[in-house]
């Protein structure tokens, strides 16, 4: 039995998604990124005496959207609480959060693991999602032994999304984080920018022998890339297994991942952990969300990726893998649907293939988002239509794609006619071509007749070369075989 | 339930309040008095009554998502003990 098989990994994730509002959760300060230090920190944000928080309606709308998107319960009445801890980036001495009654509870997210025949699906349950405010930033360098505090970020609205300990590997944790990352952008509540800290994850990791109760967990804080998440969890799991196998108990702790060393190291242990002394914030009344408000938000939600995937499979006959890839983002799905409308539903599969293949590869190479693709969805559809009606071969189609990408021509038809790339499908012309090729390549003909079937490929190649790719390869192959067999 | 001196020291530490030995003792007595009041309250049968999160039975008013604050950094920092490059400076925080 391998070492991995003797241990079960248990992971739960907590994600802080910064909500896409204009102003802060409890004050009218801007939350725009990149401002000069402390110019977006109002009297409320820096906690001057006598100020009072007033809740931003849009932050609540974001929470309702999220609750609806994950099939959760939205509390008709939820409560804000003070989470007390002493740290200079939190000048009030407490963070306003939610504790006993969060705005969202339950629900979950389906994730896909692997690809092709080995692909599987799994449902990750959510415990809760609650609204809270972000803290400011501490800058430790270069202030003559002092710490610099920037409170622009203090009071930025966050939705903290907490899962059940449902994940069993770093791959599952990353798949969940990616699905969540896509979803919050899809419903327009978070910009997903991980570099700017708009989407950050903490991973609670423990190991146990299968069937045993949960082991003691350690929490890896502030994972701001999927790659680091994978590395950090893998390292942490190996570390915990080694500790236990060497007879040491795991102590509950908060750890940080160091990308330079690829290791996790302890920040603080349970003994000196905070006692947050949560209590309902007397400055804020309970948040009431009535059913008609939820209905109103619901009517404004876009079709969700899960529903769209099912539609692509049932109505267009796409595979679950294709359906998932095409709904990776709302922009991707919109491009596909626009191309499909122009190409016709019977071309769903080739349109999907072109988007996931040539187009994605090119976007990747040039570092572009699909919304910025130089080739429009109707232009792509035009290429697919001309392959479908045998006007061009797949090979020529790639040249048409290049031309349209570069802006040479308004659509596939214009490029094909301007360059004389129309496929030769005229039987008489192809027959003459095939005769020519047979006469000029006696060696290949002999080889084929001697039983080497692959020799026909060389002959097809010669015919394609002679027509600079314009002959229909299938027609050429069929005719060659017919003549060689005769 | 009652608190001992050790509990009081711990709460003082979490609250970042410095207490002398005499203050610790008087704080312990005061806190225990408060806990005594709470015990009286707990003697009331509240079965079937939904707990309130606030003394006033009204709900939260919401604010439109509009930026209403302007930059007042200069005013705020004029009364701060120490600033540099727009930052508030505080004793070094070590993690």
How does the SSE layout of this entry go?
The complex is a heterodimer of chains A (486) and B (95).
Chain A: H1 3-6, E1 8-18, E2 55-56, H2 57-69, E3 73-74, E4 77-78, E5 80-84, E6 94-98, E7 104-105, E8 108-113, E9 120-133, E10 137-139, E11 146-150, E12 157-163, H3 170-186, E13 199-208, E14 218-223, H4 226-245, E15 253-258, E16 263-269, E17 279-280, E18 287-288, H5 291-299, H6 305-316, H7 320-326, H8 330-343, H9 348-366, H10 377-388, H11 394-405, H12 412-419, H13 427-440, H14 442-449, H15 455-466, H16 473-485
Parallel strand pairs in A: 14-15
Antiparallel strand pairs in A: 1-12, 1-13, 3-7, 4-18, 5-6, 5-17, 7-9, 8-9, 9-12, 10-11, 13-14, 15-16
Helix pairs in contact in A: 3-4, 6-7, 8-9, 8-10, 10-11, 13-15, 13-16, 14-15, 15-16
Chain B: H1 5-14, H2 21-42, E1 62-63, H3 73-78, E2 83-84, E3 87-91
Helix pairs in contact in B: 1-2
β-strand number of chain A:
18
Q: How helix-rich are the residues of chain B, as a percent range?
A: 40-55%
Specify the CATH homologous superfamily of the domain at 1-45 in chain B: Glu-tRNAGln amidotransferase C subunit, N-terminal domain
Largest interface: A-B, 53 and 36 residues
Mean pLDDT over all positions of chain B: 91
